[in-house]
Amino acid sequence: MQRHIRVLHPAMALQGPFVVVADGPAEDVAAALRAEGAAPVVETNWADAAAALTTVEPEAIVLADVSADAAHLAALSRAPGGQRKANRRAVTPVVARSRDDSVPSLPDALVIAANAPAERIVRRLASMLRVRALHGTVLRRTDTLSSRGELPPELPSSDPLEEATVLLVGRGRSYPALSVALGEHVSLIGALSVESAAHTLGARDIDGVVIGDGFGPRIVEALLTVLAEDVRFRDLPVAVLGSHPAIIEPFGLSLPNLERVSDGAGRLTERFLPFVRLHAFGQRLRRMLKSLDAHGMIDPDTGLLAHDAFWRDLNRAVDDAEKRGVGLSIARFSFDRNNRRSSVDAARILSRLMRQVDFACREADNSIFAVFTETDLRAAHVIARRLASVLKNTMLAPEKKRAGIEAAVTLATLKATDSVDSLIERVVGDAAKG
């Protein structure tokens, strides 16, 4: 089994500067950073840490001491390199050693056990720096476009937790408490089995996994092995509640954002949310880069076509279908919980499911139009029914609602006498009748 546990994905090269804060010896951390090519590595004590951050803009900060004076922490949080939302600066990751199950010493710091080997700290830094690199790329690209007089899409300023989704796997006594504690901050998907968890991970984007109690060591190990072996999940935050330390520790390098909390749903949530926030921020940045790569034709919020691009493509597709005499069908998806959160959630799922030849967009009324090119009405029915089924079983359901969200689907296929307006009028009109 060991050969399955130590699945090490290629590490990201570390480039400095890095700031290591500690009043006591922290040579293990500094040496591990230098061994990975990080330079310079600035070592400072707590009293001088804030001053150090005013003279250097670090790639990341390591709080290698497990305790610090409250005044020193406050000064550090106000320093330019310690600010999470510093204007036009890429996010500066912070890793903080901690004793037992204590909460982060700085807001958004990613805690790691005080006795964790320095190699684990380096692995976690590499994971966090992938998000920083994405952020820096987005900032440079948007600045370049702005300097040319273009208007790039704006990166949302809202807390990424508002759009984060966490998968809670468990069936023990802690499950209700975890559901409440996590559900106050993020959207939550529950899974009572490993099979259900695997289905969710394959069907939608997840910003974190929490493994509660109720599973034996072998099941926990099997789930962690699945996550460790898939490169898609290498940066996924994973928290395990309860015991199994001998099972969990060997996965520390393969899953750099894996943490164990011995007890307490509230404490686990406090420690875990900074990981989830950073991952959700990274997902936001990836959608933004896709939009920038597509010159604004992709909606950075959903991954579907932007409104204007959709209608341009629809007009072209209708003209092409009429000239070539091929089929074209359009579906309209609407939902029984007609709000923005449900609509965006559905759009992001559809962006993963759509065929390469098809395209879609989310409308202002929270419905979604999906166009199936070279597809007659019969085939479109099959495709739309399949998509609606996946949405029902995958979308985030309202609180206290056990059943999935129903997607109402109306379809229309292009006729010889149709224009874009008449085609849309039919699919919208059928929806109104339904």
Description of the structure:
- The protein starts with a helix and ends with a helix.
- It has helices spanning 2-5, 27-35, 46-55, 70-78, 118-147, 175-183, 194-203, 217-229, 245-248, 265-293, 307-324, 340-353, 377-394, 420-433; strands spanning 18-21, 41-44, 60-63, 94-98, 110-113, 165-169, 187-191, 208-211, 238-241, 258-261, 328-335, 359-362, 368-373, 407-413.
- With 434 residues, the protein is α/β, with parallel strands linked by helices.
- Strand 3 (60-63), helix 4 (70-78) and strand 4 (94-98) form a beta-alpha-beta unit.
- 43% of the residues are buried.
- The longest helix is centred in the N-terminal third of the chain and has 30 residues, at 118-147.
- Helix 3 runs parallel beside helix 4.
- It has 14 helices and 14 strands.
- The chain folds into three domains: 1-152, Rossmann fold; 153-293, 3-Layer(aba) Sandwich (Rossmann fold); 307-433, Reverse transcriptase/Diguanylate cyclase domain (Alpha-Beta Plaits, 2-Layer Sandwich).
- The model is unreliable at 1-6 (pLDDT under 50).
- The radius of gyration is 24 Å and the shape is globular.
- The strands form three sheets. The chain has a five-stranded parallel sheet.
